[in-house]
Amino acid sequence: MHPIQMVDLTRQYLRIQQEADAAMREVILNATFINGPAVKKFETELQDFLDCPHVIGCANGTDALQVAMMALDLPPGSEVITPAFSYAALAEVIHLLGHVPVYAEVDPHTFLMDPAGIEALITPRTRVIAPVHLYGQTADMEAILAIAAKHKLFVVEDTAQAIGAMCTFSDESSHAAGTMGHIGTTSFFPSKNLGCYGDGGAVFTRDAALAERIRMICNHGQRKKYTHEIVGLNSRLDSLQAALLSVKLKQLRAYEAARNAVADVYDAAFAQLPGIQVPARRPGSTHVFHQYTLTLRDEAMREAMKKDLAEHQVPTMIYYPTPLHRQQAYYNPVSMPLTEDLCLRVLSLPVHTEMDPDQLQYIIQTVIAFSANYQPQTA
Ligand SMILES: Cc1ncc(COP(=O)(O)O)c(C=O)c1O
């Protein structure tokens, strides 16, 4: 059996090696490293894939969020409603730009921002609602967009973990994650579902004026060389990465299917185990299973299971051990019981495109054996 990893990027590469090498070699031979044709080509392909008219590559998913927020040209101190159960990038960007994150609770079953709690957080300073499509499925965008429209707020979607996920509205229209709000962002970090071999990111929008601002911000605020109209950044998607991403984009639906196949087998195997809750699928969204995340009965069980699996060479990860409002850098005394509780109880298992049947069965048998032997601590 191959050693089990959270993701297996080496074996994934070996399956696309010829095409990936050829695409990257072409960039090198043509010496078109910065803003070469490979970048435009990939942006156009991703536009078609997402059915979104504007895709702008940038240096990473955190920059994508920063560029998105800068493009909205918000007054200083604007409040941005965003989930506390998430990765730190969005909170970091909000602080860096002199704005204020206002943390929203998540649904404890889907881990997604709960629209029911949003309106109570809106103040005269609120400008943006920024859902994160955590672990690979979309938040309830129909409800979020309705709240945003009612209060005249922008919506920025963080799609770093959910590229390719589709959200269905009540009129049965279907929309790609990241294309429903004013701006969507993603990361091509290597372990992401559409990951490159270094850093990369992109910003999506349907709005031509916002797209123009985004392009300028990514390019030092220039429309024309050496003419800086607005304060910008240097945030570019590298041509080598773009060439690779064109190759991997063709595989993305197959990658998504492979991840779903693993998730389906996990779901069936773990459904009846005491104290173990499998991830809920939100009706109205497909799931691309960037993460497969269990919720355990309590922290003690989570720690025991993590240790037991590690002893059996099954890696696991905790996304995320500390809620954003309890991080020293972004501290906020507000109490968010659902988020705080999830941080103690979630555990993500390996899910990736290269999982062999024997690896999958080994992980499942290890979890089942742990469950059979685990003695819950009594108070
Ligand atoms: C939800 C989310 N947002 C943003 C990012 C930031 O992406 P990057 O690492 O490319 O800056 C990540 C990356 O892990 C993420 O998971």
Defining key terms:
single chain; 379 residues; Aspartate Aminotransferase, domain 2; Aspartate Aminotransferase, domain 1; 2 domains; 3-stranded antiparallel β-sheet; 39% helix; binds pyridoxal-5'-phosphate
Note the topology.
Elements: H1 9-30, H2 37-50, E1 54-58, H3 61-71, E2 79-83, H4 89-96, E3 100-104, E4 126-129, H5 141-151, E5 154-158, E6 166-168, E7 174-176, E8 183-187, E9 201-205, H6 208-218, E10 222-224, E11 227-228, H7 239-249, H8 252-270, E12 276-277, E13 292-296, H9 299-311, H10 337-345, E14 346-349, H11 357-373
Parallel strand pairs: 2-3, 2-4, 4-5, 5-8
Antiparallel strand pairs: 1-9, 6-7, 8-9, 10-11, 12-13, 13-14
The chain binds pyridoxal-5'-phosphate.
Pyridoxal-5'-phosphate is lined by residues 60-62, 86-87, 89, 132, 158, 160-161, 187, 189, 199, 201.
